Amino acid sequence: MTSLFNPSFVARLVFVLALSLSTMAHAQETETIPLIGEDGATTQEVTEAPQEKVEDENAITAETYRQLNLFGDIFERVREQYVEKVEDKDLVEAAINGMLTSLDPHSSFLNADEFEDMRVQTKGEFGGLGIEVTMDNGLVKVVSPIDDTPAFKAGMQAGDLVIRIDGEEVMGLTLSQAVDKMRGPVGKKIVITVVREGVADPFDVEIIRDTIKIRSVRSELIGKDVGYIRITSFNEQVSAKLPD
Asked: Phi, psi (5° rounding) for residue 184?
């Protein structure tokens, strides 16, 4: 089987790179010492780094090369012999994430989709419907529509179950996948099919997406001299929403 991640090719590539880095490091460790001769002329003497240090670096490079070669062998074995087909992209991302999560509990890898989701959360606004949802027996359940949002104006109610999004069944999707389908460009229409308690048949609700701002700051006055402020998430909207 021809592989884009041929371990021998990876090994050769890493070895060449390692030798280049080792050569650069060795070149940087040479020391130039100015000397002044008896006639006052300035000459230069180059002193090489200690041989022991170079040997230690070569040993480290060889070990790194061996470990990367091992990774290439395992990668190829999984691709060819695992019981189910696994995408190369998923394997590489999992390996990178495993490397980072092994460092500490706070380091992790974000792929393009996860980074975009984080960017939306940090910005504090997105194109969507304006409903807080959860998963209930494989369906999207509305916890509450947000005031003055498209979903609120369309009559969505707490407890509504979303069974289809633009004709696609929700059953089988994760909550994250369902939310991604409900988000989208501002001004674009979406049709969701809803099951509501007390209503015999499912019905469609057409909603035009709008800019939804995440309410990250909630505040109230307790008594006459106590102010209560709750910050639910830190994003770009927090400082502007904090009461004076």
From this structure: 170, -170
SS3 (DSSP) at 205: strand
Separation between Cα atoms, residue 214 and residue 113, nearest integer Å: 19
Identify whether the C-beta of residue 219 lies closer than 8 Å to the C-beta of residue 233: no
CA distance 212 to 198: 29
Q: Tell me if 45 sits within 8 A of 35, measured CB to CB.
A: yes
Per-residue pLDDT, 156? 92
DSSP secondary structure letter of residue 84: S
- Helix/strand/coil for 3: coil
Which pLDDT value is given to residue 141? 92
Stated pTM of the model: 0.48
**CA dist., res. 34 & res. 156, Å (int):** 81
Indicate the pairing of strand 168-169 with strand 203-208: unpaired
Residue 68, both tokens: 């990367």
Output phi, psi for 108, to 5 deg. Answer: -155, 170
Indicate the SS3 state at residue 32: strand
What separation in angstroms does the CA of 212 have from each of 151, 203, 206, 217? Answer: 10, 24, 17, 15
CA-CA distances (angstroms) from residue 182 to 33, 107, 163, 165, 234? 68, 29, 12, 7, 23
C-alpha distances in angstroms, 231 versus 11, 42, 217? 50, 67, 5
Query: Are 145 and 162 a contacting pair, CB within 8 Å?
Result: no
Tell me what pLDDT residue 203 has: 93
